[in-house]
């Protein structure tokens, strides 16, 4: 490969505006249009529609399905005065905090950190299996855990000699927290691995040369390098964990709503019970929470770039 | 420093250091072992059960057999569902590759008014409008469009969802390819479409390959969208059929489920590690690629 | 084959930077023309504007008798060799060389034989089926040349084509390039920031600074009679000694030492005028004995240049450094008291604005 151009200056601003192939604005728009159309129709429009639907009493079937009535903010008031909604919100917070912030982040970092100081072969094996959990399709991983946690034949009871504990029934929230940690740790591990790899060895060596111990090395050399990554990682996995539907395959929100996190709540409310309007109202609340997290994230990205 | 002071101050830290070293080694090994146990044990079932003559829910060494795969081959729903997964995955892949590369190329090379805002909005949208948050309106939209129970509809919804990310990554990729290639072709009189075909697409091939694999992996494992948009079992992809196998009625057929799980998992795992070996992991807004 | 003429050519980038500022140049048919200047002075911009890869803000460009100012780059019949060569990594060398013919819809067999023919001329035999990635830097550079040659352009545009080669290879490639240009006789514009390259290759050199032309002339003119102090210090492998002083009694006072007026300046300066006196280290010599009209000083540094040495002398009184190139057997020791001598016709005088005095 030829070396990239050096010293030629930024070769933008070609024929008017950086158009190196002479594509022209009209053709560029034409190239862009199909993608934008698809995105508008199947991503943007649904989101906007949520706004409207949330203000109606739309139902999946019955009279309200034919002639939905405008009910204003009733759905929102209903949602905000509904114990089930608050139960779900609370569970979601616990789920996100437990499996993303504590589980994936902390475990991912611990693994990345430990793997910098073990043999290469050990590291490769550990990383392979952590990644495997992430890659295997979710309907398979949920079954693997369903089998693990089974009351009478599950491997977990056999290992811990916990008799016939029905983990998914007795500890549903804890189960999906552990499950989601298991699935998602890979991302944090990878992110922190690459962050740790970017710490210049010469800085660590200089620290060691003046007699810094492991803790001092971490605090003075490593941490300043990965601080930004900790935040990025937390925001991203919070966003994903908040929106994951996979626990539905493990507990379906039960028993008695005890693992009924928001995505599952919406699904059951809107598509099982048919309350589309109310489901939309809660969807909108979710989108707003997403928006807040994503904006903070993008703001951080921008700051880092400049 | 006198000799006496010297000897006391060297021996004690030395033994303490050795102790610390030993503890560090212990901690490291125990932690590694626990991590391995946590991540390996659940997966062992997937490795053993498909080859076990009497598969149970627990992990155990198999009485070796290939019979489970025969059970799988004799189940038309299962086989058809793998085909359906393939249709959805390849269909979405083609849609996002074609639309994504055209869009990202124009965005990278032509300064369309409002480009930066557009890119920012795309990135924002793709992270906040997730399948879960938008399932209600998406479902209704597909009902209105008459695209419920249509694989084409599923492809459109999935493509729309991943396109922003695809455009973002590909634009990044195109931005980083030197423009002198295109300029050179242009000086010899090549027209824009010709340049796109002769130069840009071949140069972007590694990026396109990554995106192709990524799109396939995303769609292959997706459960929610086909679950709410498809009705007939004959059109459902493996992700959904797998779920119905172990939730619908009676004792789950573990021979079938185990072989099916393995066959369903292998393609994405293989593709994933293939891409990883060739191009390495990259972090584009947190994508598995 | 064609000449190139620019009239009041301006290229202003968004943000107001003028890459090319009021450029009037005529490059003759068949000439090897060098654009020389420090990095960022606008050489690439000028070249790309001639190629049509940048749209000029105002002014005009003619190639031969064709007005090309608003023409598409592909219609200007120019070929460009980029600094990074821009060889298509996914095509074989043969396909790379024949690419211009493919655009011209020449049949495949014909393309092949032309690529072979040009490849032979540029010593690329046996490499035609390889990919660019499998070639050395020097070979890649020749492939880029070959591709340019195949298109049979009116004009070659080279943007620092030698700068990615290591020092030794660069000399070889330089000779090769000069011979090729002589053979083909195609008008060539060659951009470089390396003054030695420009002096060695070009028939004429244009020296640029901040988008503006500083001087246009043959290598000899530019070297011996720089138009201003900028050109004087930019051209030459050791830069010219430039000492501040003023005119007094038909001579030049530098500190309290007096030297003779340069031949060119006689009769063009008045007493008391502030000037800069210039002399190339190669045109200076050193004497261990006092010399009337020489500059007295002490040797402080001696740098070996192989067959010669670069001596730095600190002038007595003013303490200003003057550099002198002496042949290898005549190096004075550090701390030696010496007199710097010269022929007045080899020295130059610049006025307060830095422009050379004389014609
Ligand atoms: N695309 C561009 N946009 C804005 N300024 C540019 C651009 N390209 C070059 N410049 C500026 O124009 C001037 C001349 O650049 P260039 O022609 O690349 O110089 P050279 O080739 O002599 O090193 C520089 O100050 C550079 O920063
Ligand atoms: Mg340049």
UniProtKB/TrEMBL annotation, chain A:
Topology within the bilayer: Multi-pass membrane protein
PROSITE patterns, per database record = ABC_TM1
Q: What is the top-level taxon of the source organism?
A: Bacteria
- Which residue ranges traverse the bilayer? 31-52, 89-113, 125-147, 176-199, 230-250, 281-301
Q: Where is the ABC transmembrane type-1 domain?
A: 90-297
Name the family the entry cites: Belongs to the binding-protein-dependent transport system permease family.
Q: Which PANTHER family match?
A: BLR7065 PROTEIN, SPERMIDINE_PUTRESCINE TRANSPORT SYSTEM PERMEASE PROTEIN
Q: What is this protein called?
A: Multiple sugar transport system permease protein
Automatic annotation (TrEMBL), chain B:
Keywords in alphabetical order: Cell membrane, Membrane, Sugar transport, Transmembrane, Transmembrane helix, Transport
- Topology of the protein relative to the lipid bilayer: Multi-pass membrane protein
Which intervals hold domain ABC transmembrane type-1? 82-275
Subcellular localization, per the record? Answer: Cell membrane
Domain of life where this protein originates: Bacteria
User: Which PROSITE patterns does this entry report, sorted A to Z?
Assistant: ABC_TM1 (PS50928)
Bilayer-crossing regions: 22-48, 86-105, 117-140, 152-174, 195-217, 254-275
Q: What is its main location?
A: membrane
InterPro entries tied to this protein:
BP-dep_ABC_trans_perm (IPR050901), MetI-like (IPR000515), MetI-like_sf (IPR035906)
The entry's family comment says:
Belongs to the binding-protein-dependent transport system permease family.
Which protein, by its recorded name, is this?
Multiple sugar transport system permease protein
Q: Which organism is it from?
A: Pseudarthrobacter enclensis
From TrEMBL, chain C:
Q: Which UniProt keywords apply?
A: ATP-binding, Cell membrane, Membrane, Nucleotide-binding, Sugar transport, Translocase, Transport
Q: Entry's Pfam families? A: ABC_tran, TOBE_2
User: What highest taxon heads this organism's lineage?
Assistant: Bacteria
Q: Name one GO molecular function term.
A: ATP binding
InterPro entries cross-referenced by the UniProt entry: AAA+_ATPase (IPR003593), ABC_transporter-like_ATP-bd (IPR003439), ABC_transporter-like_CS (IPR017871), ABC_transpr_MalK/UgpC-like (IPR047641), Mo/tungstate-bd_C_term_dom (IPR008995), NA-bd_OB-fold (IPR012340), P-loop_NTPase (IPR027417), Transp-assoc_OB_typ2 (IPR013611)
Q: Domain ABC transporter, which positions? A: 4-235
What is the designated name of this protein? Answer: Multiple sugar transport system ATP-binding protein
Q: Which organism is it from?
A: Pseudarthrobacter enclensis
